[in-house]
Amino acid sequence: MSKYKILKPDQSYTFSQYFSLTNPTPEILAEFEYSYERTSLDLSRYPNEIKYLEFLQGYLQRNIRLFNPVAEISIREFLIAPIMAEICDQTKAHLYSEYPLNVDDKLKGTLDYYLQNSNPLLVIEAKQSDIRRGFTQLAVELIALDKFLDNQSPIIWGSY
Predict the structure, then answer these.
(1) Distance set, CA 51 to CA 48, 55, 58, 59, 62 (Å)
(2) Residues contacting residue 6 through CB under 8 Å, at least 6 positions apart
(3) Where are the domains of the chain?
(4) DSSP 14-48
(5) Which of 19-28, 76-85, 110-119, 120-129 has the highest mean pLDDT?
(6) Which helix (H) or strand (E) holds 118?
(7) Distance between CA atoms of residues 127 and 134, nearest Å
(8) Which range, 32-36, 77-81, 89-93, is most confident?
């Protein structure tokens, strides 16, 4: 781990600024006394029939053919939003887009998508490129949500 502090104590940081940091993700997370582990997940399956699945598949295939995803907003509008709407319809979750979160000067900004029902379900960070730095931003957003919820939720999921 890094012997020096990455985050400057007198500086404020938004979630999007973590994307710009070039330090390895574990070092940035260590600044908040968090870590992560790479492991396989055994996710539970949705027990009910998924309605509109054929429509959604066709819709997404058409959109992939029609547009060139040169901007994050394009990816969000044409690919991610339709999937999120269907997930929320099926699970009766609430969908928040550009959800504001302000824990402190180091953990603030907006979550691209936040799904919630009785528990926080999922945080989605949409990026056009650079999976490692996008993951770092997502990880910091999950730390902020964990602190915001005062460690009340046993699991907070994230997706990039």
Answers:
(1) 9, 9, 13, 14, 19
(2) 21, 23, 27, 28, 31
(3) 51-159
(4) BHHHHHH--S-HHHHHHTTT---------PPPP-S
(5) 19-28
(6) none
(7) 6
(8) 32-36
